[in-house]
Amino acid sequence: MNIALLQINPTAGDLRGNAALLSTAAQAAAARGADLAVSPELALAGYPPHDLLLSADFVTRSWTQIDLLARELADGPPTLIGLPELHPSNDGRPLFNTVALIRGGRIEQRIRSARIPADTALDESRYFEPFHGTQTIDIAGRRVGISFCADRWNDRNPHDPIEALARDKAQVIVALAASPFACGKHALREQRLADLARRHQVPLVYVNQFGGNDDLVFDGRSCGFSAAGAPIARGASFDADVVLCDITRTEPIGAPTDLDAESELWSALVLGTRDYARKCGFGSAVLGLSGGIDSALVAAIAVEALGPSHVLGVMMPSPYSSRGSVDDSAALAATLGIDTLTLPIEDAMTAMDRTLAAAFAGTARDVTEENLQARIRGTLLMALSNKRGSLLLTTGNKSELAVGYCTLYGDMAGGLAVIADVPKTMVYRVARWVNATRGTLIPESILTKAPSAELRPNQTDQDSLPPYDLLDDILQRHIERHESADTIVAAGFDPHTVHRVLRLVRHAEFKRKQAAPGLQVTTRAFGAGWRMPIAAKYEP
Question: Which domains does the chain carry?
């Protein structure tokens, strides 16, 4: 039995566009002799649709569209298509997370998700009512069990949908998913899927979407496992694919070769940037070039995502900018092949000082004047974005965003924060990986000089922050592992440093609430997965 996994890149809300993607993929599956074609979870709606699901009209139009799709694919193999379904009862939540089996030009069967996760940033329990009972379909003389993304992560739920399907004598289990990327997640995903297949002695196939939707990136990597847990099929990483999986195959395929962190992050950030721009209607991007590592990496990502002719780098030197930073920015732009624009900000700084002179009389110069420089730059970049119709890419990293080492309406201004979920130490690792695999795109001088915002003479980041390797270790423990200050101190960290860092994290919450969307690439990013109050008093 051959099952085709339709690894497509849907757009949230684009019912006709998503139907066209599904039609093309399903026809390719038919041409390759598939007995069953399977789409990702909620593929017709585009995942995640969020509060589009609260529109009854959107849900109704989804079913109108699938009727059309069923007729279009009438001569093809049976196909499973994910979409939302209105819950007919007034009790419970308004929808089911449904997959429809289309065969012979009509909708033949509806299968609904039995488990709705309530503990993720996607908050599916806001919309979907769980459906109780096992659900199978008969295809090519085999009993096929249908499961959803949440079913395989079942550590705390007494009802195990996969076990229930095995008890119901499913001869193969199909898992529809829309599983967002996080660095290192796919290795764990494959391990879990293999364990499930081995434990229940049943072949298991898994289909995942790829592409970027808002802050989320989906890596694809659809796969299949034999009843013994051996990998028997793998889809492309971060790309479209129609994966034909023969569930009778027992000979394993080789191990994946693209699981190193730097490679994964690069692919995810490029795809996320490309799709955010494309799906939001931007054909070009603009960003500030400071001569530092963060803007250098974002520029390289933008060039890979959009092409060098669609990226503008803007240099905005101040009296505090070093000659080396200006030269490094120019060298980077030349290597990447992008156009540049130089807008010195000294005159604007003087005008600001003159305008505020009376208001600031009797006060010493401090961080206020430093932030004004960042805000002047942010204003210039936003003006270019408006005038050119270009997407403004912000260049701040996760370490800075965590502790508030960034300026509202300054370097935080923009439409997409490309590396907002990438810690500073990982920024360096990815940049070095880029140079090692793509030639020296980022000048070595950028990689070796001390990081600095250059907002005052001889300034470095470490004037205000702990060394980045130490800072990132503390932040990763607190943000992604949910460790308290006492737990981190008990692991051997200096108490004063730990409490200072966590205090900075708390005090920067108001900034993060106003930040541009950032591409999520770790297990816990700032955004929907981080829901901290601003007006709060708590010592973690």
Answer: 2-249 (3.60.110.10), 264-462+508-512 (3.40.50.620)
